[in-house]
Fold this protein.
Amino acid sequence: MLELATFSLLNGIVYGLLLFMLTSGLTLIFSMMGVLNFAHASVFMLGAYLSYQVGLWVGFWPALVIAPLLCGLVGAGIERYGLRYVHKSGHVAEILFTFGLSYLIEELVTMIWGRNAVANNVPAAVDFPLFTLFGSTFPAYKGLMMVISVSMLVFLWLALKRTRMGLVIQAALSHPSMASALGHDVPGVFMLVFAIGSGLAGLAGVIGGFMLLTQPTLAHAVGPIVFVIVVVGGLGSLAGAFIASMLIGILQTFAVAIDYSLVDLLRALGFVITRSTPSYEFLSIKVATVAPTVPYLLLVLFLIVRPRGFLGKRDV
Amino acid sequence: MLEVRDLHAYYGKSHILQGVSFRVGAGEIVSLIGRNGAGRSTTVKTIMGEVAPVGAIEFKGERIDGLAPHLIARRGLGYVPENRDIFPTLTVRENLALGVKPGQQGGRWSLEDMFTLFPNLRDRADTPGGVLSGGEQQMLSICRTLMGDPELIMIDEPTEGLAPQVIARVSDLLETIAARGVAILLIEQKLTIALEISHRVYVMGHGRIVFDGTAQQLRDNAAVRREWLEV
Ligand SMILES: Nc1ncnc2c1ncn2[C@@H]1O[C@H](COP(=O)(O)OP(=O)(O)OP(=O)(O)O)[C@@H](O)[C@H]1O
Ligand SMILES: [Mg+2]
């Protein structure tokens, strides 16, 4: 039991940090555009594919740096040559544009790497047990995921709060026209924010690629969860996105690991339950079976009771 | 220093500025006054490049119409908007630091000057700008723009919503600014401080300049005041 709890918690934290790396970029971009970027999960997928490809050419460690940088460049390009023009036509056009992009990226990825999953396996360098606890092992690549996400997030936080560039970004997000009138190149700042957000999504794709299948539907697999987090955390709030990422990461990992059903709970409480008990079919569903619904349950719940999320300033 | 000739501006289909012309000389204090909706804010926003200009805007002898706002600012034109636009989560010190332009070396004003002029801002240097009072925010907004060392500063309704003592301090600050050789384009609705400190005054109505003269000439012209200013 203790073993299960410890490992679920560790795995939950790894997953939660990964989700936050993805949602922090989306949140930054949302604060700037005022609309959700539906192509964000596609950039994540691109990160996974690029790290696979670049890894084949030059090895895993260089790919870990190069793939996110390439995703950052793609993001900068999307802002500079796409959204900057579409912005003039309003929010609906922007949303449709990002939708279109997500399909475009999916088709491109399919054209280049095919419909089936590529062999994006855990690289040998980090494919060994990091430590053994209660007879189970914790793999080194999960340790690496933790180190990379935590150091990236600390670095970004310091850059945003402690550097002049960070101040300019914060200013440009709250009052863009004032920041311009003080002589700051706000369109340039927006392009940078888009690049950073996309780079983060790319990095999440690199390290998340081993956990999930690197195939053209990867974006669809993570996209919905990412949007749930952004809504539950509160649109535009980084702290909220962090809380929601960890919450959903941990909740879902625990749920998957719980191989019990209501029947087991009731029996433990002393009730006599047999196959002929009414609604036995329902009571015997294992928690692990309903795990994938947890994020959406949370989404529906939040939209009903607290539409602005944990820390959001406005309703969805 | 600033010369605007036959300036037009539009919000969608509505034609807001209908041929505005005026000038501000080096070191001059000029007021642009008028009723609500006369088009004064639109005039300064158009000069700043926030609203697309149609017409000629010259600053220090060069055309600036059509430039991006941050490039206009970097040429030495300062702007304090009517809603003050303090960065709410950033501290007073950080707000002031953001007034300094990329690559700027020195200038007429230092952080110490600002704190000496407004000891309040020093006391609250590490407080988020969003929690300051309206008067403090107004001072902070003006000081922030001064940190960028403008040669002409355009200030939109700095006295709006402030108590009489605070208005007097704004008026003192404007005279301090002018004393350091910075030209001022002051946007106002009431005549109170505009007539006291301005060298020249323009009155705006329905998107046009309807009067142009000295403060004394406007005081003497009851007809203009009645038609374009009094409510
Ligand atoms: N963003 C906008 N979209 C459409 N119309 C606008 C917009 N801003 C201002 N207007 C209109 O333009 C006209 C001029 O507005 P402007 O803000 O320049 O006036 P003003 O002289 O500064 O007055 P005040 O600040 O007291 O409202 C008004 O009729 C106003 O309704
Ligand atoms: Mg106005």
Remarks:
- Strands of chain A lie at 129-133, 136-139.
- The CA atoms of residues 9 and 273 of chain A lie 31 Å apart.
- The first strand of chain A starts at residue 129 and ends at 133.
- Chain A has one domain: 2-259.
